[in-house]
């Protein structure tokens, strides 16, 4: 500490010498006002200056102070700025006089502090401090155990900052109102040096505070550091452009490695030079500004080599902030690798990253990955997501076509994920087309949701307020063309009424349960395991509640043919048959054709719904409604033999699907053999799978179907309600 104290005392002497040299030059100037230093010494409190003794010939207060009181340099320096304010308060208002005083205040502070910092840098070795590390002529570390350096006295820190602002604003006002006057250009030229000093004293101040043992001082240091790095430094350096000192500001920002500030100055200068070039009619001036622009652009290119990723991150981040992303993605001779690293560094940039992956890197695999992130993690609009996921799949195919299959991680999984996301969007689009006639009749979105709920939300969610709100939320998202998550899409499909309001290919009435199972097949790799399994059970549970099982179970005085017709008229039959026909059950064995008793309690436990509804306020009412559904299902199981009828329906659906396939194959062969123009059952793309839209069969075909039914019925009847039917069932008929 003693070595530092000796050095600091020597710094004050060097500082005083610098101020005195300035004063000598100032005395040579002839002005109506006395030098500002005279005002400063006069304003100093008596305890900061030695008393003059006229009787001993001591008549010069300035020399007296520099002979006896230079140890108070840290007190005198802040008065350079304060004295200008005092002069202003005393009535000096004209710019020509004030700018002279500001110029003198600048000179005093610059000569005092610059000389001190230079002396420190050049004489560390002489004071035995050669092991200390300086940056910007201030200690980087090692403040613990040291008193506060005199150069970062709180009053100096505050006054230098105020003087920088005062000088800059005065120059700006003069240039706006009067143009250039004596000393205004000098004050503008001094401002970058003052800004540099301002940064030095702030950094030294907060570094010292942070090294102190007491919490209060460290907290002060932390607050000052944050204020300096987020506001003070940026504002002081960038404001230099306001007085035509942008290049000097760039030099300071480069020295401090402040990339955000440097980028801001670069943009300001680019805009200024571009506007000046475009607005001048003078060819020579136009060439001058054009050359200046080229030099600045070259300077920007050197920053990529000098500062690397730090510069790239700041520059490219500003492109995004200023909505100039297109400029960033232009073909570039430098910085391409840094741009790619920047865009891939944050998921938020994925919408730009995939464009760069294609245009700048020719990396379609990376583009596909970025597009999938955008589509699945960021996108909220259904059409936009469809485009992004489709492009992701196309990019993946392009990467494969380039022979980069081995370089694509989890290629099959990524391709399957694209297909799954597109399938879910396709199902959502089908729901929208189904309810669109109702939407078209509404005045606005609010009335549309009311009408849709009236048409499709009155039966299955009756007396189920939480499920009703869940269905309403799903419809709101669909009407607004927002992307539904897989869980909500399944809820909409299993809770909406099966009403048919307009026939045609857009009508999905009766097919919602099958579509929900298609959504489950597509979302197995998207939803977490617990949520998926819970949704599967819930989908089957709600499917079982769609039919009138009391009517199905009442087989009194009904022939087997009538019973079979009743079974084939259930939605469960159609759902199962469609699954067999399309191969859904074979392709996705995990869907499990669950029986009614296996889905009891589905959606009635918190762990099943935890990931979708973390809040108990949302989850508990839904569980309450699911329990009500459980009670209804239990009633069907105990009173209507639902498990038995489900087993019969499952076998019947499988046979019907097989028979229909055989019939279609036979008819197709007949057409080929007879070369007859016969129109087969309409083939359309149902939910992304080539399926069959069943139409009314022709007479010949109907008789074949009826004959087939007769054969099935003769093989075994259906169990009735009474003992007589059981006895009558007997043994199967022999062939």
Automatic annotation (TrEMBL):
Keywords (A to Z) from UniProt: mRNA transport, Nucleus, Protein transport, Translocation, Transport
Superkingdom as given in the UniProt entry: Eukaryota
Cellular component, GO annotation: nuclear pore outer ring
Gene Ontology terms for molecular function: structural constituent of nuclear pore
Chain intervals for the UniProt region annotation (Disordered): 691-735
InterPro entries per record: Nucleoporin_Nup133/Nup155_C (IPR007187), Nup133-like (IPR037624)
Regions of compositional bias (Acidic residues) in chain numbering: 693-709, 719-735
One BP term from GO: transcription-dependent tethering of RNA polymerase II gene DNA at nuclear periphery
Main location: nucleus
Domain Nucleoporin Nup133/Nup155-like C-terminal: 6-647
Pfam families for the chain: Nucleoporin_C
Subcellular location, record wording: Nucleus envelope
Signal sequence coordinates: none
Identification of the protein by name: Putative nuclear pore complex subunit nup133 protein
UniProt organism field: Botryosphaeria parva (strain UCR-NP2) (Grapevine canker fungus)
């Amino acid at each position: 500490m003693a070595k530092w104290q000796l050095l600091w005392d020597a710094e004050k002497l060097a500082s005083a010498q610098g101020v005195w040299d300035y004063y000598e030059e100032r005395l040579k100037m002839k002005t109506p006002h006395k030098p500002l230093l005279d005002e400063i010494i006069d304003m100093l409190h008596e305890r900061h200056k030695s008393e003059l003794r006229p009787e001993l010939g001591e008549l010069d207060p300035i020399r007296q102070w520099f002979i006896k009181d230079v140890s108070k340099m840290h007190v005198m320096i802040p008065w350079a700025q304060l004295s200008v304010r005092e002069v202003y308060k005393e009535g000096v208002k004209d710019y020509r006089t004030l700018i002279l005083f500001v110029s003198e205040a600048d000179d005093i502070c610059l000569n005092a502090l610059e000389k001190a910092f230079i002396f420190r840098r050049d004489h560390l070795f002489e004071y035995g401090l050669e092991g200390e590390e300086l940056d910007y002529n201030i200690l980087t570390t090692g403040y613990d155990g040291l008193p506060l350096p005199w150069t970062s006295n709180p009053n100096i820190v505050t006054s230098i900052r105020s003087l920088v602002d005062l000088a800059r604003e005065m120059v700006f006002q003069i240039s706006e109102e009067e143009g250039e006057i004596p000393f205004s250009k000098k004050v503008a030229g001094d401002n970058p040096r003052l800004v540099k000093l301002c940064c030095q004293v702030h950094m030294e101040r907060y570094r010292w505070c942070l090294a102190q043992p007491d919490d209060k001082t460290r907290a002060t240091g932390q607050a000052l550091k944050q204020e300096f790095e987020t506001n003070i430094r940026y504002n002081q350096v960038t404001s230099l452009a306001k007085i035509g000192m942008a290049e000097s500001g760039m030099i300071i920002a480069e020295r401090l490695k402040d990339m955000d500030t440097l980028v801001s100055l670069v943009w300001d200068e680019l805009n200024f030079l571009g506007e000046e070039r475009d607005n001048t009619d003078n060819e020579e001036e136009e060439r001058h500004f054009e050359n200046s622009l080229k030099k600045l652009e070259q300077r920007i290119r050197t920053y990529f080599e000098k500062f690397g990723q730090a510069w790239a991150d700041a520059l490219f981040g500003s492109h995004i902030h200023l909505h100039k992303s297109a400029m960033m993605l232009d073909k570039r001779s430098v910085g391409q690798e840094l741009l790619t690293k920047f865009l891939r560094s944050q998921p938020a940039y994925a919408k730009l990253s995939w464009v760069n992956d294609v245009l700048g890197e020719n990396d379609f695999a990376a583009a596909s990955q970025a597009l999938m992130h955008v589509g699945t993690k960021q996108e909220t609009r259904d059409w936009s997501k469809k485009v992004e996921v489709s492009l992701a799949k196309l990019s993946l195919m392009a990467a494969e076509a380039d022979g980069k299959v081995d370089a694509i991680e989890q290629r099959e999984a990524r391709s399957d994920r694209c297909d799954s996301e597109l399938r879910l969007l396709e199902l959502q689009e089908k729901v929208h087309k189904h309810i669109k006639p109702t939407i078209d009749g509404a005045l606005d979105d609010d009335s549309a949701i009311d009408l849709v709920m009236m048409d499709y939300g009155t039966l299955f969610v009756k007396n189920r307020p939480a499920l009703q709100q869940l269905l309403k939320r799903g419809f709101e998202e669909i009407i607004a063309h927002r992307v539904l998550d897989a869980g909500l899409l399944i809820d909409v499909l299993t809770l909406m009424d099966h009403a048919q309001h307009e026939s045609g290919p857009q009508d999905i009435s009766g097919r919602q349960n099958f579509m929900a199972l298609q959504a489950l097949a597509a979302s197995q790799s998207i939803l977490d395991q617990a949520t998926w399994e819970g949704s599967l059970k819930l989908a089957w549970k709600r499917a079982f509640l769609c039919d009138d099982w009391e009517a199905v179970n009442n087989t009194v005085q009904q022939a087997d043919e009538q019973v079979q017709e009743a079974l084939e008229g259930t939605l469960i039959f159609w759902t199962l048959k469609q699954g067999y026909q399309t191969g859904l059950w074979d392709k996705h064995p995990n869907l499990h054709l669950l029986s009614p008793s296996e889905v009891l309690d589905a959606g009635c436990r918190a762990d099943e719904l935890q990931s979708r509804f973390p809040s108990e306020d949302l989850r508990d009412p839904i569980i309450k409604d699911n329990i009500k559904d459980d009670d209804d299902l239990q009633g069907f199981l105990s009173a209507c033999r639902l498990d038995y009828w489900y087993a019969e329906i499952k076998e019947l659906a499988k046979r019907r699907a097989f028979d229909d396939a055989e019939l279609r194959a036979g008819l197709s062969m007949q057409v080929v053999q007879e070369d007859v123009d016969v129109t087969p059952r309409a083939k359309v793309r149902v939910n992304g799978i080539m399926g069959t839209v069943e139409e009314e069969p022709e007479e010949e075909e109907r008789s074949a179907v009826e004959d087939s039914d007769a054969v099935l019925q003769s093989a075994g009847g259906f169990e009735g309600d009474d003992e007589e039917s059981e006895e009558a069932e007997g043994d199967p008929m022999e062939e």
